[in-house]
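The authors assume throughout that readers already know how a fold can be written as discrete tokens. A single example would do more here than another paragraph of explanation. An entry of this sort, consisting of the sequence and the corresponding backbone structure tokens, reads as follows:
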Amino acid sequence: MPRFATTIIALTLSFAAGAAHASEAAIRKAFQSRLPEVTVESVSRSPMPGLYEVVANGRIFYVDEKVHFVIRGVLFDARTSAMRNVTEARNAELAAQLLGKSTNNAIKRVRGNGRRVIYTFEDPNCGFCKRQQEEWLKLNDITVYTFLWPILSPDSVAKSRAVWCAKDRAKAWDDLMSRGVVPQNDGKCDNPFDRNMELARRFGAQGTPAIYLSDGSNIGGFVPADRIEDALRSTATR
């Protein structure tokens, strides 16, 4: 959003002592009126008194009660010894919520009891995605939701269509990524590729694979099985 980006200027906020709290509905209306080209998704109070969080087009903004000032930046909680990154944590929370609601657009593969959940964005012609396939086979008790994101070539789209239109999508994807076997069908069925692309862009994914844990945290592109295990254990203890 080039034009939108140029309209946002980070300004120093000052808040009047004892000011009445604005309603979230009023903040939503004011923000939307000032920036009509975006869609406000949610408004809530931030941990900082007098500062509100506005989520618009998947991005987090901070505003004062009158929406006279808008900040597009990172908020830290200096009350914590590690200077907790409030914005990063909130972004992960929003990602987890959205990924969890979008699983109908993904291929679901379960190993063992499937209690640990991982989300990936992959392209069938991506070399690192094929290497990642080998790493998934080393892990147990996981559910992997793979969002097909065919961005490398027209052939990527054709193969993704064939996989999505297969009777058993999980087997079709495994066969393609492990053995190079393309499903034999005409690929003519409804697919979620546009929605997956929008989702990937919302998260700022730069390429495939892009791997996310159930808490919405991004652990990178190609990730070896042992590092995935470490990340899953870390998530489980939070």
